[in-house]
Structures are given as C-alpha cells and as structure tokens.
Design brief:
With 286 residues, this protein is α/β, with parallel strands linked by helices. The chain is built from ten helices and eleven strands. The structure holds adenosine-5'-diphosphate (ADP).
Length: 286
C-alpha cells in the first residue's frame, strides 16, 4: 500500500513547535520579527508572500512587508535590504524570488549577500551556502529541510541510500542535494542538460524532483518501492495545480510519495518559520 506523505500534517507539527518557541521568547520579554521584500507585482509571488504572512502571524511572529515597484532602481533595492539587515529589531530578512530582471540584471547575488547571514532565513547567502558545503550548522534553505523532513517521516535514516535529485537551482535542488549528502546519502544530481534521466532514476531508492516540469517523472522511470518527493508546483492551463510527477501512475509503484498540493509546499513554509526562530536564537547567542 503506497503511503501518501501528508505534508500538511507534518508541517502542522513543526508549526506548533515554532509557535511554542515564540511563546517562550515572548514570555521572556522578547519578540520575533520577520521582514519580506517583494519587488514588482508577480501574482504568484504575491500569493507566496501572503501565505508566509499568514503563517508568521499564526505562529506569533511579527510580519513586515516591504514592497518596491518593478520600475525601481537597483540602488533602491540594495538600500532597503541593507537597512532591514542592519535593523536590530528584525530577526529574519527574505527577498522574494524571482526579482524582475530589469531591476537586478545579473547582480542578484550582490543583493542576497547584503543580508546578514544570521538573518538569511532562505539560506541563500554565500556564508550559509558555504556552511552547507562544510556540513556546519547555518541557516539552510527551507525547501531542502522540508524535503529531508518528508523523507525522514518514512525513512528515518538516509545514510547509504541512492538518491537522485532532479534540479540544481540555488534555492531548491542544490541545497537539497548538499543536505542529503551531509546525511550520508549517495546523491546523484540531474538537470536540464542530463542526457537521459531514465538512466539514473531507476537506480534510486529515493527520487526528489524539483525541475518545474509537469509530468517529468513517469512510472517507468521509478523503481518499485522507491520514495518519491515532488517539489514541483505548476499551474496548468486549466487552472489545476500539479507537481513534476505523474502522480497517479507513480503512486501505484512507489512505497511513499508526496502529493501536490499538500506535500512539500506546506513544509517549506513551516521550515521558514523554524529558520526565523533559529535566526532569533543565533542573534541572541542562544
Ligand atoms: P526551482 O527554483 O523551483 O528549483 P528553477 O527553474 O530555478 O526552479 O530550476 C529548475 C531546475 O530543474 C534546473 O536546475 C534545471 O536544470 C532543472 N530542469 C529543468 N527541466 C528539466 C528537465 N526536463 N530534466 C531535468 N532537469 C530539468
């Protein structure tokens, strides 16, 4: 019987833990404050930011939204990020991606690296990425932590497992592959230029798909009994929200699988909250 990994339920438990931690901080006279920066008016980004706001408020975290128009200058964005990063009252700073190319061009790294690594709750600064490569504790990308948590719910120890990660983006695929490798899995990273995905996926005990391509992973590519983690979130022309996995058919073959929606999405938000509290603790030497 295939296990459908209930990301919403797993996320609920993480969020309850975070809310408890925030209550303790408040009881000691502190407060946890998070600032999100949104550039432009991309509707999907607006929804993501609104979901983050709701989750923060439910956990007792104070949420600030800072918006800039898509017509703003690069320097307006860097000034804002610098100011938020320096503000002692703010514990976490997040730049909602993607930022319009007209604003940042090829200089997104410069903006991200203005965030104090102790406030970098997306784990995207060179400092936090470096810590992930090092295997030392920093702030690690939320989705990567969500993926590991989902896997752990059905497979408590990934050491020695063959894991194929499809996608190597800086926010999802790359940190996920590094985190899994730090947990002693044998990780193969595939991407857009991989010649034949089906050469790699059938050897995998666990497959993580984060490519943004609906229907990319089909049942013939999956070993019977594998664990399949679908990170994709794609809106089809008919309005349906689907992942990167041919869910119905792959679910018949897999031992466990995450649905879309209700899988990795809620876990990503839960680990964002967890990172915000972790950031607070780092800043207070706790
Ligand atoms: P996200 O930020 O959600 O990971 P991106 O679009 O930034 O999304 O990255 C998508 C990743 O998926 C890239 O690393 C790309 O190489 C990979 N990818 C996209 N399409 C395919 C494909 N057809 N097969 C394998 N990998 C793919």
């Amino acid at each position: 019987m295939t296990q459908i990994i209930d990301g919403k339920a797993l996320a609920g438990a993480v969020r309850a833990e975070v809310a408890e931690a925030v209550r303790e901080i408040k009881a000691q006279g502190g407060e946890v404050r998070f600032a999100a920066v949104l550039v432009g008016d991309d509707p999907a980004s607006q929804i993501y930011v609104r979901n983050k706001q709701r989750a923060c408020e439910q956990a007792g975290i104070i949420f600030e939204l800072h918006t800039l128009p898509a017509t703003c200058q690069f320097v307006e964005l860097t000034d804002l990020v610098r100011q938020l990063s320096a503000d002692k009252k703010i514990n976490g700073v997040l730049l909602q991606l993607p930022v319009p190319y007209e604003v940042v061009g090829d200089r997104l790294n410069e903006v991200l690296n203005l965030i104090d690594p102790c406030k970098d709750v997306d784990g995207l600064t060179v400092a936090n990425m470096g810590k992930l490569v090092d295997g030392t504790a920093g702030l690690c990308a939320c989705t990567a932590q969500g993926v590991l948590h989902a896997i752990h719910s059905v497979c408590p120890d990934v050491s020695g497992k063959n894991i194929v990660v499809i996608g190597r983006s800086r926010i999802v695929g790359r940190p996920t592959s590094l985190l899994l490798s730090n947990h002693h899995a044998t990780v193969t990273v595939c991407h857009r230029l991989t010649k034949d995905l089906a050469l790699y996926t059938p050897t995998a005990d666990i497959i993580v798909v984060a490519a943004g391509c609906p229907g990319l992973l089909t049942a013939d590519m999956v070993k019977a009994g594998a664990i399949v983690i679908d990170v994709g979130i794609n809106r089809l022309a008919d309005g349906r929200l689907v992942g990167d996995v041919d869910f119905e058919k792959v679910a018949c073959k897999a031992a466990a699988i995450t649905p879309v929606p209700g899988g990795i999405g809620p876990l990503t938000i839960a680990f964002l909250l967890k990172n915000i509290v972790r950031a607070y603790r780092l800043q207070h030497g706790l």
